[in-house]
């Protein structure tokens, strides 16, 4: 072992051998390979098939630039999924918007497979007036939605451009089994191809009967379906006692910058776009809460009308005449005082009244009705 140690090169020898290399490095010699070189790749004939998937400049120029058809809702050439609860205003709104898009110079086809015979007549007249095509495959002898899908499949195979063509399908659930992922995949492959050719495709769909913890709707289809569309935007309605409805959008998945918008549907089913969006999710929460509080609100209102206006007298009146306890009265009185009126003023809860709280005798409070 000592012999091996004695045979090791000395430090002087190591330095003599390493020094020339170190000197070269000090003079700027790099140990990193020089990457500034050019080479010509040899063509591999087995990859020639890739050329079949290259878009020419001329073909690219034919593609329309992304543009709003309906601002904050529909982008030209996109696949759009618009779910809403049953009777939530989606058909009424989209029928109106079909006319708007037709007036822009688009060919609009509204395919309805979710309509009963009694509702058809006014829709046929509206479609003719607004210059778009209403298609009712289930009401035509020997025809079905399958025939429509086959015609679209033939269109997709032509390679033609459809930049001014809009198809609206009402509703998606009637067109395929939304739980069957396999059929949904094939279905959306067809419409993705049509979208690539410029067609705008809009699917109306249903939400789950349950809502999430924040009171927002849940789409009843599969997660794959959500991934297959460009936009998924919920329609969330707020229904009023006079038969009118406020419907607001809630963008859930988008490829673009979308802001919520709101529509009003009057009792005669006329649609108008509101200047400012309404938070219908929050309004529905308030509406539900208000309806739950209504028995106590009504009892307190009757108490004030009868002349029992102090908190003590109101508690006594509600207990004797409506079997409503002191704890509930003390909760409801401050909750619906004047400062709360603005939150509930437009909820159209019939026969409800609110009150003003003012200082009374002996550091107490008295209440008077508003209006």
Question: Your description of this structure?
Answer:
There is one protein chain. The chain is built from 13 helices and 14 strands. With 371 residues, the chain is of the alpha/beta class. Helix 10 (280-305) packs across helix 12 and helix 11 (311-322) packs across helix 12 (326-335). The termini are far apart.
Task: Give keywords.
371 residues; single chain; alpha/beta; 10-stranded mixed sheet; Rossmann fold; two-stranded antiparallel sheet; 2 domains
Short description:
The protein is built from 13 helices and 14 strands. It has helices at residues 2-6, 11-26, 57-62, 90-103, 117-130, 145-158, 172-175, 181-196, 223-228, 280-305, 311-322, 326-335, 341-344; strands at residues 68-70, 74-75, 79-84, 107-112, 133-135, 165-170, 200-211, 217-219, 231-239, 245-253, 262-265, 271-273, 355-359, 365-369.
Distance between the termini: 109 Å
The protein's oligomeric status is single chain
**The CATH top-level class label of the largest domain:** Alpha Beta
Proportion of residues in helical segments? 25-40%
Topology:
Blueprint: H1 2-6, H2 11-26, H3 57-62, E1 68-70, E2 74-75, E3 79-84, H4 90-103, E4 107-112, H5 117-130, E5 133-135, H6 145-158, E6 165-170, H7 172-175, H8 181-196, E7 200-211, E8 217-219, H9 223-228, E9 231-239, E10 245-253, E11 262-265, E12 271-273, H10 280-305, H11 311-322, H12 326-335, H13 341-344, E13 355-359, E14 365-369
Parallel strand pairs: 3-7, 3-9, 4-5, 4-6, 6-7
Antiparallel strand pairs: 1-2, 7-8, 9-10, 10-11, 11-12, 13-14
Helix pairs in contact: 4-5, 6-8, 10-11, 10-12, 11-12
């Amino acid at each position: 072992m000592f012999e091996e140690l004695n045979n090791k090169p000395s430090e002087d020898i190591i330095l003599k051998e390493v020094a020339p290399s170190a000197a070269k490095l000090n003079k700027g010699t790099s140990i990193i390979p020089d990457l500034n070189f050019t080479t010509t790749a040899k063509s591999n004939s087995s990859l020639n098939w890739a050329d079949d998937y290259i878009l020419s400049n001329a073909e690219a120029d034919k593609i329309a630039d992304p543009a709003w058809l309906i601002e904050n809702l529909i982008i030209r050439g996109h696949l759009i999924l618009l779910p809403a609860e049953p009777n939530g205003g989606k058909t009424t709104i989209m029928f109106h918007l079909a006319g708007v898009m037709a007036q822009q110079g688009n060919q609009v086809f509204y395919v309805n497979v979710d309509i009963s015979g009694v509702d058809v007549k006014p829709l046929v007249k509206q479609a003719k007036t607004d210059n778009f095509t209403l298609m009712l495959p289930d009401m035509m002898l020997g025809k079905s939605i399958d025939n429509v899908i086959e015609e679209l499949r033939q269109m997709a195979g032509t390679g033609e451009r459809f930049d001014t063509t809009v198809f609206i399908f009402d509703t998606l659930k009637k067109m395929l089994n939304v739980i069957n992922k396999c059929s949904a995949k094939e279905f959306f492959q067809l419409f993705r191809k049509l979208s690539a050719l410029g067609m705008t495709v809009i699917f109306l769909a249903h939400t789950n009967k349950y809502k999430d913890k924040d009171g927002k709707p849940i789409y009843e289809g599969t997660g794959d379906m959500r991934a297959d569309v460009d936009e998924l935007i919920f329609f969330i309605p707020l229904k009023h006692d006079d038969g009118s409805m406020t419907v607001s959008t809630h963008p859930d998945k988008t490829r673009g910058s979308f802001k919520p918008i709101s529509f009003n549907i009057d009792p005669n089913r006329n649609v108008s776009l509101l200047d400012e969006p309404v938070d219908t999710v929050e309004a529905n929460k308030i509406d539900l809460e208000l309806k739950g509080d209504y028995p106590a609100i009504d009892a307190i209102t009757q108490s004030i009308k009868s002349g029992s206006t102090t908190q003590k007298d109101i508690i006594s009146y509600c207990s004797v005449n409506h079997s409503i306890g002191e704890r509930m009265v003390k909760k409801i009185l401050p909750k619906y005082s004047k400062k709360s009126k603005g939150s509930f003023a437009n909820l159209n809860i019939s026969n409800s009244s609110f009150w003003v709280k003012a200082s009374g005798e002996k550091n107490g409070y008295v209440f008077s009705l508003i209006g």
